[in-house]
Amino acid sequence: MAEHLIEFRNIKKSYGSVDALGGIDLYVDKGEVLGLIGDNGAGKSTLIKILAGVVKPTCGEIIVRGRPVSGWNAGRSREAGIETVFQDRALALQQSIVHNIFMGRELVGMFGWLKLKQQLAEADRLMREIGFTSEAYTPRSIVGQLSGGERQGVAIARAIYKQADLIVLDEPTTALSLAETAKVFQFVRQVRASGRSIILIDHNIHHIFDIADRFAVLDRGKIVLEADRSKVKSVKELVGFMEHVARAASAGGGHAKAAGGVAP
Ligand SMILES: Nc1ncnc2c1ncn2[C@@H]1O[C@H](COP(=O)(O)OP(=O)(O)OP(=O)(O)O)[C@@H](O)[C@H]1O
C-alpha cells in the first residue's frame, strides 16, 4: 500500500451526545492540494483541530509517513510538519513581514543577539519562494499595509519557515475580492510546486474546484465523497452532489454517499 504523508483512520470525536466526527478515514499525499468541503457544522474545524493536535479524538489512529503516532498532540503535530493557518492568521499588523515570519522563533546568535541580516535574507527568500512577486514590498514592509491576499501569503511563509510539509488553510479567501483570491491561490500553487501539501478549506466550491487535486466532502461528521479532480467532470457536478447531500440532510435521511464518481 502506498505510504501517505498523513492519514486518519477511523477518527471519531464526540462532545457529550454530539458526534462531531463519526469515523473519518482520510489521507493527504505529498505535493497535493486536498480540498475539504462541508456545510456549517459538518466537522471541518474539529477535523483540523485534531490534525493540529489541539483537540483529542475520542478514538482512531493518526499515521504519519506510514507510522502510527501515539500520544498525538500539538507537539507531535508540529514534529510531523503540520502547520495550520487559522482564519485570523494571528498576524501582528503593526509589525513588519520579517517580524511576523520569525515571531517567537527568531534567529539568535551568541549572547542572544538577533541575527537581523540573516532574518531579512531568509524572509526575502521565503517571500520569493511562495511567489511574492510585488516589488512594492520588502521584508521590512508593515503587514497592515498589505492586501488581504498578501497577508495570507505572510502566514504561509511563516508556516514554511516552521518547516511545514503540510499547511492547512482554514478558509483563506473569506472576505477577499476575486483579485485577492487569485493571489492566495498563486501562493498555494507555489507551495504545491515545492512538493509540500495543502489542505484547503473553503465554502466556495468554485474556488476549491479550481485548485484542488482531490476533494473530500464532509457531511455531519462523515466523509460522503472523496474524488480525484480528474474524476469530476465539472463544478456543476460537484455542486449537484452537494445539493443532494443537503436535501438528504433536510429530509432527515441518512448520509448521501457517492462511490467512485460524483453523481448521486
Ligand atoms: N467544543 C464543542 N462542544 C460541543 N460541541 C461542539 C464543539 N465543537 C464543535 N461542536 C459541534 O460539533 C459539530 C461539528 O462542528 P465543527 O465546528 O467542527 O463544524 P464546521 O464544519 O467547522 O462548521 P463551521 O464551518 O460552522 O465552522 C457541530 O455540531 C458543533 O456544534
UniProtKB/TrEMBL annotation:
Domain ABC transporter stretches: 6-245
Pfam families reported for this sequence: ABC_tran (PF00005)
PANTHER family: CARBOHYDRATE TRANSPORT ATP-BINDING PROTEIN MG119-RELATED, SUGAR ABC TRANSPORTER ATP-BINDING PROTEIN
Family matches, as InterPro entries: AAA+_ATPase, ABC_carbohydrate_import_ATPase, ABC_transporter-like_ATP-bd, P-loop_NTPase
Matching Gene3D superfamilies: P-loop containing nucleotide triphosphate hydrolases
UniProt name for this protein: Sugar ABC transporter ATP-binding protein
SMART domains from the UniProt entry: AAA (SM00382)
The species this protein was found in: Rhizobium herbae
One function term, GO molecular function aspect: ATP binding
Keyword line: ATP-binding, Nucleotide-binding
Organism ancestry: Bacteria, Pseudomonadati, Pseudomonadota, Alphaproteobacteria, Hyphomicrobiales
UniProt key word Nucleotide-binding: yes
Keyword ATP-binding: yes
